[in-house]
Write a sequence for this structure.
């Protein structure tokens, strides 16, 4: 073993090898990734893909608005400060649902519906109920699991009534941090009592799985500050936790210029935060899922991971096993076996396209057989920790895998590649070895 390896630092259950984290890599919520999407009309391909769907499918509904815009956020969202803007958007969304419903084969059954954004609760609860009614009238449902992303700053009692009435059982809240100083530095001020009220309201509304989105690598965030946030999360009984590293890319996301970059922790500190966060949550009884998710053992996500059913799509790690994900709304992405297609991002242009009875897919990529072959390897590595590698790909990858093998992060047994315990922060970097597109100049987030 080299002196470089012997001298590496360890934090929690992980060893810090900065040279293996030097190259930013995608999050691999798809393969090819969104960086490979091309801008052109995908309407014909989108229509053919929708008409070819059979059996089980899932839906993702995008609401690209928030009551308040957070400075760190990279989502496609705008301020919900003009009622006519929301009304016009919802009219177009209802119409897109009708258009898609007309194209789907009678055998298609919807078994999951996820509402995301932005913040779905930027619209009125009554508008949300009407949206679900339109989905029910135009698509064939099979007792779908309903989930929703929520901003705790704008949850009203009427929203809890709507969620209970519709039967939403999974919710995810953007908590990020409980520390007031850090909240102020990222433009998301939400007192602890506000989060507690939201959790209590969701539980009483029948939501049985609550996820907290948390972040490390934020300005003014220390190890102790992160630890306090994690302890409060555990005390509030979150069923799932997603612990993400903040990606500071103000050249791509102008609103991030309001964040003081001089107060951001460096890569070593970020790694330490992620490692210590992992240990803290596991010791509190959570099961690590993938490289940045955690779930209580009885949660569906944890069961899927234990049973080898964990999947990964544009919403991250999921227990959703449907082969097709249909995206509805501006910027939403649909996932078919041979196609990824993204709807028009601009809400105004999206409304114009749908108003003209056109499918709004305006960006995407056709998935080749080689894409699907490599995509299976990447998904298996990230979701199962092991993948069968065809001989030609293994031969081509050996040199790039060697640094990970030398440090005991992966094992190669014949044509099988296995991630070792403690490899979580390097999982995406290992997956990138099999990414045929990573020879260009695309910029991605830090691996940790």
């Amino acid at each position: 073993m080299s002196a470089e390896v012997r001298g590496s630092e360890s934090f929690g259950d992980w060893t810090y090898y900065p040279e293996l984290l030097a190259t930013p890599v995608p999050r691999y919520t798809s393969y090819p990734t969104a960086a490979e999407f091309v801008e052109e009309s995908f309407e014909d391909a989108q229509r053919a893909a929708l008409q070819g769907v059979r059996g089980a499918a899932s839906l993702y509904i995008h609401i690209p608005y928030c009551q308040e815009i957070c400075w760190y956020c990279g989502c496609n969202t705008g301020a919900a400060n003009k009622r006519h803007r929301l009304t016009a958007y919802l009219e177009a969304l209802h119409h897109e649902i009708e258009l898609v419903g007309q194209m789907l084969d009678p055998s298609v059954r919807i078994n999951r519906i996820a509402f995301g954004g932005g913040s779905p609760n930027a619209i009125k609860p009554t508008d949300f109920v009407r949206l679900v009614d339109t989905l029910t009238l135009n698509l064939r449902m099979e007792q779908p699991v309903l989930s929703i992303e929520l901003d705790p700053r704008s949850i009203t009692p009427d929203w809890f009534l709507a969620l209970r009435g519709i039967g939403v059982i999974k919710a995810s809240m953007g908590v990020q941090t409980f520390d007031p100083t850090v909240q102020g530095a990222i433009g998301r001020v939400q007192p602890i009592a506000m989060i507690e009220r939201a959790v209590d309201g969701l539980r009483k509304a029948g939501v049985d799985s609550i996820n907290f989105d948390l972040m490390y690598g934020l300005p003014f965030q220390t190890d102790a500050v992160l630890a306090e946030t994690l302890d409060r999360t555990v005390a509030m009984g979150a069923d799932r936790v997603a612990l993400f590293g903040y990606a500071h890319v103000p050249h791509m996301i102008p609103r991030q210029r309001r964040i003081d970059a001089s107060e951001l922790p460096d890569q070593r500190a970020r790694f330490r935060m992620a490692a210590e966060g992992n240990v803290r949550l596991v010791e509190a009884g959570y099961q690590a899922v993938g490289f940045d998710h955690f779930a209580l053992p009885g949660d569906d996500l944890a069961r899927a991971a234990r049973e080898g059913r964990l999947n990964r799509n544009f919403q991250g790690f999921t227990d959703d096993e449907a082969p097709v994900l249909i995206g509805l709304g501006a910027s939403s992405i649909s996932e078919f076996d041979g196609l990824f297609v993204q709807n028009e991002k601009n809400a105004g242009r999206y409304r114009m396209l749908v108003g003209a009875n056109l499918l709004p897919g305006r960006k995407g990529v056709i998935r080749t057989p080689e894409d699907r072959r490599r995509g299976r390897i990447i998904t298996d590595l990230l979701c199962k920790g092991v993948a069968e590698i065809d001989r030609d790909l293994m031969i081509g990858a050996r040199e790039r895998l060697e640094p990970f093998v030398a440090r005991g992060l992966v094992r190669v047994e014949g044509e099988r590649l296995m991630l070792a315990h403690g490899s979580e922060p390097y999982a995406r970097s290992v997956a990138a070895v099999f990414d045929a597109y990573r020879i260009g100049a695309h910029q991605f987030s830090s691996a940790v």
